[in-house]
């Protein structure tokens, strides 16, 4: 393993922290029960006149790596809260619970503990599962919901098709890569730019060691603990809030057809926006378009 001063991942993490702090956020950790501690980013100085907006990251690196361009764009107009989900970064629990529902309950407890009474949610991929459950369980607190690249209607066959597409043996190898070929497979389905597949092994090993290795066994338990995707039945309770689905047209993790099906299942007031020429991470591949779509949705009257 390369020393930190030679590690791109370590150096880039310093840059990302600077971006968050220069956007008016500071990082803290707080207990949200006897067993659970959540690490999060929140406004250094709260502005009561601003609405509250929560970004919930997907499986993979911590929130710092997934929301940089959104934090810089939305911080002037919103009080931003960006938690790390349990077993990502410094968020942890002694509880045996591993479902995305437990993640949702923990994030809701965090916001309640911080005195955040009303808020809108933006969740991507696994974070979309979490956002869906927060909105479902706490409709009186959640104002609007953005579900980005997140197959809340996932079936068992979708997981099987994804693993086959990535040419791996099991979903753990894809979501929690241990070697360069695994990470290339993940990049192959997560981003639209084929040039990223040419990244050298030493660079990929650095990313794996710094971004994916920590708490790997616990994260495998999170994958096993999902309440969705175990069979081919879809059980979705419609949400009461206005919902925006944002999808990349080339998404290979949750293909666009899933978004169109989800639109008819998740609620009455559901809008689907498609970001062209992006795959599973449109918030990174075309942040300008992604941010504009979400801001228009959040600023529109109910």
TrEMBL record:
Domain of life of the organism encoding this protein: Eukaryota
Database matches in Pfam families: Abhydrolase_1
All residue ranges annotated as the AB hydrolase-1 domain in the record: 51-287
InterPro entries: AB_hydrolase_1, AB_hydrolase_fold, Meta-cleavage_hydrolase
Name this protein carries in UniProt: AB hydrolase-1 domain-containing protein
Organism annotation: Populus deltoides
């Amino acid at each position: 393993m390369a020393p930190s001063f030679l590690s791109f991942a370590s150096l880039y993490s310093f840059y990302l922290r600077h971006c968050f702090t220069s956007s008016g956020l500071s990082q803290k950790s707080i207990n949200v029960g006897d067993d659970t501690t959540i690490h999060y980013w929140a406004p250094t100085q709260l502005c009561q006149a601003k609405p509250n907006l929560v970004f919930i990251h997907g499986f993979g690196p911590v929130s710092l790596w997934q929301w940089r361009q959104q934090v810089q764009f939305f911080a002037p107009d919103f009080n931003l809260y960006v938690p790390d989900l349990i077993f990502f970064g410094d968020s942890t629990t002694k509880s045996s619970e591993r479902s995305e529902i437990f993640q949702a309950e923990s994030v809701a407890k965090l916001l309640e503990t911080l005195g955040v009474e009303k808020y809108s949610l933006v969740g991507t991929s696994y974070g979309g599962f979490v956002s869906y459950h927060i909105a479902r369980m706490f409709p009186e607190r959640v104002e609007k919901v953005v579900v980005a690249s997140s197959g809340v209607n996932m079936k068992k066959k979708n997981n099987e098709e994804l693993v086959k597409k990535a040419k791996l043996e099991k979903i753990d190898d894809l979501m929690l890569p241990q070697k360069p070929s695994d990470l290339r497979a993940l990049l192959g389905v997560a981003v639209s730019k084929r040039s990223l597949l040419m990244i050298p092994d030493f660079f990929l090993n650095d990313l794996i060691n710094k971004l994916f290795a920590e708490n790997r066994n616990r994260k495998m338990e999170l994958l096993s603990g999902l309440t969705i995707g175990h069979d081919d039945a879809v059980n979705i309770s419609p949400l009461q809030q206005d919902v925006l689905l944002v999808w990349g047209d080339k998404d290979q993790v949750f293909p666009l057809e899933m978004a169109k099906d989800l639109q008819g299942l998740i609620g009455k007031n559901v809008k689907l926006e498609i970001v062209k020429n992006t795959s599973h991470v449109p918030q990174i591949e075309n942040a300008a378009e992604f941010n504009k779509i979400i801001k228009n949705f959040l600023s529109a009257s109910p």
